Amino acid sequence: MRECLRALKQNHKDDDAKVKRAFQTLLTFAGNVVKNPDEEKFRKIRLSNQSFQERVGALRGGIEFLELCGFEKIEGGEFLFLARDKVDIAVLNSAGAELDSAIKNPFFGVL
């Protein structure tokens, strides 16, 4: 997971604000599933959603990170979906910790 986030930051190192917003958005996705694992609306992301594309989807590494969290492409690649029986709170908490570190550490991905 950390490597995926490092790659995302390296791929977009010229735009720190965009990277930070992507990290914060990914943290929100993970946190929402941890807090509400039974709510499908938090486990299903429309890949064509403009806000998702601007914040995460258009950045190389964003979708890959969600896949590491357990999300899978469904319906011909229209959605990312995390099935209820595949929700792994430990993995999502780990993802949250990595994202938190990436957001707070100014040297993340640099060294």
Distance between termini? Answer: 16 Å
User: Gyration radius, to the nearest Å?
Assistant: 13 Å
Major pleated sheet: 3 strands, antiparallel
Number of helices: 5
Give an account of the 3D structure.
The chain has 111 residues and is mainly alpha-helical. It has helices at residues 2-11, 16-35, 50-57, 62-68, 89-104, and strands at residues 44-46, 72-74, 79-81. Strands 1-3-2 form a three-stranded antiparallel β-sheet. A hairpin with a 4-residue loop joins strand 2 and strand 3 (79-81). It is globular.
Short description:
The chain has 111 residues and is mainly α.
SSE blueprint and pairings:
Elements lengths: L1 H10 L4 H20 L8 E3 L3 H8 L4 H7 L3 E3 L4 E3 L7 H16 L7
Antiparallel strand pairs: 1-3, 2-3
Helix pairs in contact: 2-5
List keywords for this structure.
single chain, mainly alpha, 111 residues, 5 helices, three-stranded antiparallel beta sheet
